[in-house]
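Archive maintenance. Older records in this collection stored only the sequence; we are now back-filling the structure field for every entry so that each record is complete. The fields below show one back-filled record exactly as it appears after the update. Entries are processed alphabetically, and Antitoxin is next in the queue.

ARCHIVE ENTRY
Title: Antitoxin
Organism field: Aureimonas ureilytica
Length field: 143
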Amino acid sequence: MLAINTMAEVLGLPGREAAPLSPFGLISRIESGLPLGALDRVARLIAPDDAQFKYRLVPKATYDRRKGSHRLSSDEGARLARVARVWGLALHVWREESEARDFLFRPHSMLEDRRPIDMVIGSEIGAELVLDILGRLEYGSAA
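Back-filled structure field:
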């Protein structure tokens, strides 16, 4: 449950009730369309100095169209949640935003010198590889 609540916090999702958000509650919110503000929030957290970063998650033309509905599609929301999940764990492992950012934006040898953030944005499998590295770092094995 910790990962779900961390993802919800990174996404800026307010709890509708006092109880923590359940996995099914998060799925429901993603399927019904995360607020466009969640994209802006995640982009500011991960890449505060890069105003164009959010367009790597949702193309600019699509982002501009979404301004009318104020909601992301379920696919866009799933991608954003994937990035939020990795950011939450990176922050947990590194304890400082600057260190977590450095990890995400620096090529990593276990990813064939690709940047973790690119792997996470690119696919679920890429995100799993990055989560595996973070898990190894969290528990002290070679990564």
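Update note: Residues 46 and 101 are 6 Å apart (CA to CA). The radius of gyration is 15 Å.
Entry marked complete.
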